[in-house]
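Input sequence (532 aa), recorded before submission:
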Amino acid sequence: MTTDILVIGGGVAGLSFAIKMASSRPDLQITVLSKTNKTESNTSWAQGGIAAVWDFDVDNFEKHIEDTLDAGDGICDPEVVRLVVEEGRQRVEEIIGWGARFDKEDDGDYNLGKEGGHSENRILHYKDVTGWEIQRTLNEKVMTFDNIDFREQYFAVNIITQHHLGRNITRLSPDIECYGAYVLNRETNEMETILAKTTVMCTGGAGHVYRNTTNPTVATGDGMAMVYRAKGRLANMEFVQFHPTALYNPSGVGPDFLVSEAVRGFGAILKGHDGEEFMQRYDDRLSLAPRDILARAIDNEMKIHGVDHMYLDCRHLDHEEFLEHFPNIYEHCKTNGIDCFKDMIPVVPACHYVCGGILVDTYGRSSIKNLYAAGECTCSGLHGANRLASNSLLEGLVYGYRVAVNIIEQIDNIHIPLSIPEWDKQGTEEPKELVLMSQSLKELKEIMSYYVGIVRTDERLHRASERLWLLYLETEKLYQTTQISTQLCELRNLTTIAYLITKGAQMRKESRGLHYNLDHPEPFDFIEMTRL
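Predicted structure, token format:
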């Protein structure tokens, strides 16, 4: 199959790009692949909202920029922060024009929430299911374009480069090019070759590299791993954000339910096992401190007192307003035997967002020619060492647009080689013991959770590295001898992501933002982005 543009991933970045591209160039064919279905993505699971400067009487771009830089702890790219913040409002206005609904006050003004790390109320939201509303809007808009082919149940396995033409490609090769991807049609269980002039990677995050995560099951780092295998550049993988308030899940069966940051912005208070506040010992911003500080504080309190969780107290909040703003959170807690108006909510930190990823410039161009990327799978320079709450959906919208602007200028001069080989499955057979894959995945999550979690040490990282190497060897052997399946590919991708996170953490001899190493507690005065 040949298409003009291949988009891998159907969240906010991928679909906003496809819409801009399709409307600007109706003569081009755009193929969008969804790993499962068009409603399942990290975007659709986002609760809190999207950050944008809206009320200029009290807020401005400079405040939002400063808040983002402060959260990023010296690793953000100031140019990128400024362009995302300043262009963000226009992109939000655009999606409102496409039909996105955000909560309003009685007078018609938007109800702007406040979250940790923000100095002003600037979070637009739709109850506590903002991501679902944005996903709905984009899905409906995409269906109005005849030149967008949205395909569900397609799992991208590898991107195609000169490597597949017989050329030896290394990380030092200066002119690597992308020609499309090999993909698994999950309905037929057959591998297909999709060639494209340009490929846009929008595959989201990798939360399932850890035992506890708020991410949907599709978040297995596929795009990052594919680009790394193709010798593309990645950066800052050691900065993994743990959301401080996931609902405590004693069963251990994930994903973990997220209790949105907006609840704390609404006035909920973090408390210890004894019902007393504890954040005054860690930060003057108390329960509205940035996520890295909150997650470490909760983790430390749990270890000090030998308990499995802390609490979020909502009992003092206005019941009617709480139900209006957080109906989904209230009902989910009620289903689990927790009445938010009578009981404190048990919470624990859970893996939420990977701040590193595919290294891209201000137009989403990766180090591989004709391969672009946008959204959580990237390292754009916006988030630095710690993402500011509700900046992720904003980044997806802004970069989806900017990628389209650049491709419009370039695509007419791009040509696809005619001699791309089909997928070769010779020498592989049906898996004899699926338990090998499931057990490897379980072991991987345990290694990462115990040794490369919220707090790290050199010894823990070394131990993780040694064990991950054995898992890598075992997984690659399976990959070489076993027929392709989603389970095998996800295991392979997560093994790659685990290695990148651990390697990045070993290379960074300091504590900064989301990376906290007890053996190197102080930050350097200056540090460049790590390029893996």
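Checked by second reader. The chain is about 35% helix and 15% strand.
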